[in-house]
Amino acid sequence: MIAIDTNILVYAHRNESPVHDEALDILRGYCESDRPWAIPWHCCAEFLGIVTNRRLWRQRATPMEDAWRQLEEWASSPSVLLLSETEDFLPLFARMAAHPRITGGRVHDARIAAICIAHGVTELLTRDRDFAHFPELRVRDPLIAA
After folding, report:
1. Which residues does residue 21 pair with via DSSP β-bridges, in sequence order?
2. How far is CA 78 from CA 30, 32, 72, 91, 142, in A?
3. In the prediction, which pLDDT does 55 show?
4. Is residue 136 one of the residues assigned to a domain?
5. Is the pLDDT of residue 146 over 70?
6. What is the CATH number of the domain that holds 69?
7. Residue 63 domain flag
8. In terms of Cα–Cα distance, which of 120, 117, 115, 108 is closest to 135?
9. Contact call for residues 47 and 55 (beta carbons, < 8 A)
């Protein structure tokens, strides 16, 4: 099963992104497929925070209602799973956070990696190179050719 990171969600939602069309096609493909795919809950919250942030987008920030509508659309896919912490999450998170150079914002990446691993995710689609710090999780930039 693959999981989708926040940045791919943002690119698919924000049409001014230079890779918007490609990211949208990727998400549409998963939404319309019967293959299981996932979004960690943390990425859902991060998506909402980014696309509605007026400091990032000035007057063109996505209204919260529109951002929620987008998230609900993705969540309504019959093949999507929304991933959260599991019962055995803490030791796994501790192991991810103990990797070298995991501080600051990379702690959030460690959380996402741990959640994905706990749920048997085989690949995380992201443009964030910081996930390379977690060799236990295969990562791929699906927009590399874009």
Report:
1. none
2. 10, 8, 12, 31, 22
3. 86
4. yes
5. no
6. 3.40.50.1010
7. yes
8. 117
9. no
The parent domain of residue 136 ranges over: 2-140
Sequence-ordered strand ranges (E) for 2-146: 2-4, 37-40, 80-83, 123-125, 139-140
Tokens of 36: 């299981």
User: Sorting pLDDT into bands at 50, 70 and 90, what band is 59?
Assistant: confident
Residue 145 lies in a domain: no
- The model's pTM is 0.94
56 pLDDT more than 90? no
In a domain, 146, yes or no: no
Report pLDDT digits (tens) over 24-43: 999 999 999 999 999 999 99
Asked if pLDDT for residue 107 goes beyond 90, the answer is yes
Number of domains observed in the structure of the chain: 1
> Strands, DSSP E only, in 52-133?
80-83, 123-125
Contact between 8 and 124 (Cβ < 8 Å): no
